[in-house]
Specification:
The complex is a heterodimer of chains A (342) and B (124). Chain A is α/β, with parallel strands linked by helices and 342 residues long. Chain A folds into two domains: 5-125 and 252-338, FAD/NAD(P)-binding domain; 128-249, FAD/NAD(P)-binding domain (3-Layer(bba) Sandwich). Helices cover 22% and strands 27% of the residues of chain A. Chain A has seven helices and 20 strands. In chain A, strand 3 (53-54) and strand 4 form a beta hairpin. In chain A, helix 1 (16-27) runs parallel beside helix 3, helix 1 packs parallel to helix 6 and helix 4 (164-173) crosses helix 5. The longest helix of chain A has 19 residues, at 300-318. Chain A is elongated. With 124 residues, chain B is an alpha+beta fold. Chain B has a single domain, classed as Beta-grasp domain (Ubiquitin-like (UB roll), Roll). Chain B has four helices and five strands, in the order αββαβααββ. A five-stranded mixed beta sheet of chain B has the order 2-1-5-3-4. In chain B, a hairpin with a 5-residue loop joins strand 1 (20-24) and strand 2 (30-34). The model of chain B has no long low-confidence stretch (mean pLDDT 88). Classes of the chains: A alpha/beta (342), B alpha+beta (124). The A-B interface holds A 44, 48-49, 52, 121, 127-130, 161-163, 184-186, 188, 190, 214, 233, 249-250, 252-254 and B 56-57, 60, 62-65, 86-87, 89-95, 97, 120-121, 123-124.
């Protein structure tokens, strides 16, 4: 097991609210590590609506999700946070007063005086197609991600979907697989035109198959897939023999392991106080869409406010012997030095 | 300057009845509710606690969790999805020829009486 990473604050979730919390903590000389299950920063702004305009960020009449993420990254640059992306926090244990041990699905262990849950709507996880019995094949022969291409060598593969994930993996795995079949509900693809052309060329050359329809049933014993039924748009059913299936239907948000961290949730949200957005466990905070309190609004701007107040309280846990003097970035030379502008 | 003429159309609009939409959920639960012209069918569902409309992204056509199957008789009036919406339908399940994302259907007076069915599963 790798060495324990020691830091001041661990922020779970690198969405806009988690990112801005780095800024507010940084002004108070508090170092942060951020962990996010996505392989990129920005949370919902990056995953759900990168190109959609946001109209309610104070002082910014219009900005896209992608633009806001970029601006926040620029803003927190002086504080040099550490990111652990593509990683899921599985455990949060209180081991001191306050001191937390945080574990991830990749075996990393972090220790911090303060943990901030900024997990938004929860963990982004792949959508599971509603095919009867699909769960019995998961982890054995139905996969939602490719960790190791060699696992599919000489297998008969079924890839389902019409976006870039489906097309990219089709092109990458076609040379490795024994036979690859791409299944999509229509003969049009949302993915990058270049990938679509390459895929169509492979189909034309007889190097792979393309079936238009939706997977309706799976066969096979003991979690090992043997065949899939594909229902065409005309109602006809085709049976395709296969050893593995990779469905790519995008992501959805699930609460995930938060429920196991000793907090009493209310409608899948974490109750906090409104003075510091701290949970019932001292030193464990929750900010942004995942928390709840009287009057809560799920707005990015509310999450920014929550992060600022959280940082004030977190300071007392990180520097118990020091007194915090409130300062403004407009007038404080000390803050301006931290921002690298004075 | 004719104030009377300016006011007249708004009074007329108020007198018009609000369009009604019927949601038939997968388990057979029927909700017939009033919808505000200019809002979306998804917003109407959420205001009226139609549980099977998840609408994870809040109506920005990026999550495909507000799928409805438009009643066949109503499909021509509702119309087809845009190209962007058609792309998002790739992320939905059991998509039918009359399926739409309800966040992309704007309520108009013509949709009074609309019937949509909601699927058992929106992806979560």
């Amino acid at each position: 097991m790798s060495e324990t990473i020691k830091t001041d604050v661990v922020i779970i979730g690198a969405g806009p609210v988690g990112l801005f919390a780095v800024f507010e903590l940084g002004l108070l000389d508090i170092k942060a590590h951020l962990i996010d299950i996505l392989d990129k920063v920005g949370g919902q702004c990056a995953e759900l609506y990168p190109e959609k305009p946001i109209y309610d960020i104070p002082g910014i009449p219009l900005i896209t999700g992608h633009g806001l993420t970029g601006a926040l990254m620029e803003q927190i640059k002086p504080f040099n946070p550490t990111f652990h992306l593509g990683e899921m926090v599985t455990t949060v244990e209180k081991i001191g007063d306050p001191l937390f041990r945080v574990g991830t699905d990749r075996g990393k262990v972090l220790e911090a005086k303060v943990v901030v849950i900024g997990a938004g709507g929860g963990l982004f996880q792949p959508k599971r197609p509603p095919i009867p019995g699909i769960e019995t094949y998961e982890s054995k022969s139905v996969h939602y991600a490719v960790r190791n291409m060699d696992a599919f060598r000489d297998k008969r593969l079924l890839i389902v979907g019409g976006g870039d994930s489906a097309l990219d993996w089709t092109l990458n795995l076609q040379p490795v697989a024994k036979r690859l079949t791409l299944v999509h509900r229509r003969d049009e693809f949302r993915g990058a035109p270049d990938s679509v052309n390459k895929m169509r060329a492979l189909v034309a050359a007889g190097a792979m198959d393309l079936k238009i329809g939706q997977v309706s049933a799976l066969e096979g014993a003991d979690g090992e897939l043997a065949a899939a039924s594909i229902k065409g748009n005309d109602g006809s059913v085709t049976r395709v023999e296969c050893d593995a299936m990779l469905p790519f239907f995008g992501l959805t948000m699930k609460l995930g392991p938060v429920a196991d961290w000793g907090l009493t949730l209310k409608d899948n949200l974490i109750p906090v106080d409104t003075a510091a957005f701290e949970t019932s466990i001292l030193g464990l905070f929750a900010i942004g869409d995942i928390n709840t309190y009287p009057g809560k609004l799920k707005l990015i701007l509310s999450g920014f406010h929550e992060g600022a107040l959280m940082a004030q309280k977190a300071y007392h846990y990180v520097y118990p012997e020091k007194r915090l003097v409130f300062q403004y970035t407009t007038s404080s030379t000390s803050l301006q030095k931290k921002l690298g502008v004075a | 300057m004719s104030d009377v003429q300016d006011i007249a159309p708004s009074i007329a609009a108020k007198n018009e009845t609000m369009p009604k939409i019927t949601f038939i959920e997968h388990d057979g639960t029927v909700h017939t509710v009033e919808a505000e012209v200019g809002s979306t069918v998804m917003e109407t569902a959420q205001r009226n606690n139609v549980a099977s409309i998840v609408a994870e992204c809040g109506g920005s056509c990026t999550c495909a969790t507000c799928l409805v199957h438009v009643d066949e008789a109503w499909s021509p009036t509702v119309g087809p999805p845009s190209a962007e919406e058609e792309d998002m339908l790739d992320f939905a399940f059991e998509v039918k020829p009359t399926s739409r994302l309800s966040c992309q259907i704007k309520v108009t007076q013509e949709l009074d009486g609309l019937i949509v069915r909601t699927p058992a599963y929106q992806g979560r």
